[in-house]
Amino acid sequence: MSEIAFDVKAYAAVLAGLVIAAAVVMAVCRYYKRGRYLKRFDEMDGHDFEYYCAGLLEKHGFCEVEVTRGSGDYGVDILAQKEGVTYAIQCKRYNGPVGVKAVQEAYAGRDYYDRMVGCVLTNQYFTKAAVEAAQKLKILLWDGGYLEELENEG
Q1: What is the pTM of this model?
Q2: Three-class secondary structure assignment of the chain
Q3: For the chain, what are the domain ranges?
Q4: pLDDT in tens, 14-35
Q5: What would the pLDDT profile of 59-86 be if each residue is shown by its tens digit?
Q6: CATH 3.50.50.60 for domain 45-153
Q7: CA distance 100 to 130
């Protein structure tokens, strides 16, 4: 009977090793996929990125999606509506973390355009200070992970 118990233990160890190896392979694949994902945005200019984001929002149920004019937009790049809620969205195609300034722009633009919700949409992530400011000013932060989810769902 001890031989059977040993074989079960060995089988469990091999199975656990295979699960760990599969998890590592999946993580490496996600890492390289993320790199290709970010590289694609590097090739866009800011205005192209705004139109790209507007298209993604439309595919996900936002309506009355409008890209604002380039200059004098009061910190908002996209105006949109979804399920009766109006949005003022600041888009940031960056190569590094997005800071407080983008949050401040979304806050000002939300009020200027008289929208219910202000948010910042980026291909990157946010600094700690930006997250804290967004919480205080009640601005939504949609980071690169959220943008990638929108792409994968649509």
Answers
A1: 0.72
A2: CHHHHHHHHHHHHHHHHHHHHHHHHHHHHHHHHHHHHHHHHHCCCHHHHHHHHHHHHHHCCCEEEEECCCCCCCCCCEEEEECCEEEEEEEECCCCCECHHHHHHHHHHHHHCCCCEEEEEECCCECHHHHHHHHHHCEEEECHHHHHHHHHHC
A3: 1-43, 45-153
A4: 666 666 766 655 654 454 454 4
A5: 999 999 999 976 666 779 999 999 999 9
A6: no
A7: 4
